[in-house]
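Pipeline run #58 for the internal structure catalog. This entry was flagged by the ingest filter as a single-chain record with no existing model, so it goes straight to prediction. Upstream metadata was stripped on purpose; only the residue string is passed forward. Reviewer on rotation: M.T. Logging verbosity set to normal.
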Amino acid sequence: MAASAELRLRQKYHTFRKLLSFNNECLELMAGLQEDLQFVSPRREVVGKPVVAIFQKAQRIVEELATLTGKREPALTRVLDAQRKAVEIYIAKETEQTTSRLAVSLSQVGSSSVVEVGGKAAALGEIRNRLGLPVPDGFVLTTEAYRQFCGMPFWSSIRDAVRDCDLADLEALQKISASLTDMVMAAPVPRAVEVAISERVRIMGKGEYGLAVRSSAVGEGGTRTFAGQFLSLINVPPAQAVDAYKRVVAGRFSEQALSYRLSTGLPEIESPMAVLFLRVVKARAAGVLYTRDPRDRKRDVCWVTSTPGLGIDIASGQLTPDLFIVARSRPIPSWSQTSRRKKRRLCSRRKEACRTSRWPPRMAPGRV
């Protein structure tokens, strides 16, 4: 009797150890899957094998529990089967959904298009299509184009690169940024994405100047800000549009952008990058409008910052602009502060890169 009791106890002990082992393996698989889904959407080719393994481990847990207690629990099996079917249906929908557009005209986007075209392009679409204000002609390479070029092919490399990244180690962050940037720049743009860019550029036709190619990430301009972190290119020749697209996407992995996303806990999957292509205009002056006072959002004023020529140096922080603070209740500035007089301006040139030039006397900044 004593030997029999001891044998049963040993068997229960070994069964319990197996149950714990399967449980730990299941938890490890789930943790790995959770980490992966911070970088990639749950398509079958990504999550299929881990999900199958998780349910296999869960089934073994149910079986070992029945052995340990001496009772079968049909309800547990039914619940597990129902969960398996629900997950399979969800993965199938994510995998088989109709592919989104790779490119879309600015005339077709608005606030409801943020997930497809990013915050900046969606805002420009609203200004153009709902307010009727003048906006240069252009189009957007969508977040689906980003997924095909960068998101799906490189998600595991991005995950491995930023895993356990110490933001206090600036040298390590610089190496990670350089590695990911080089990876993107070395990759060929998928043929479908390349055709989408070239065809849209062809439809736009030849303009007096080149193209402005700018980021429009999901979340950009929302509760989080990516100001000054991404790359903007001005006066890009149409023949170089595809290469400009690569450069802007690669700019998503700058040290500043990586540090910001990691420090704020923003998952890669939640901030894919669309890219704007706009005609460059011959700007006498340009700037940035803040619809609220950045220092006090309760003040009923707007801020208008400006500079002669193109305004790219304002966005990059390389230039101190003129500042006009405008009361909402009056059509005239309630207070203004002008920086020192500028002797030069950044301007576009036909078939050439932008250049810095002196102000002609008849267009002196004081007369703008």
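catalog note: Residues 359-368 have pLDDT under 50 and may be disordered.
catalog note: Residues 285-367 form a domain with the D-amino Acid Aminotransferase; Chain A, domain 1 fold (CATH 3.30.470.20).
status: ready for reviewer M.T.
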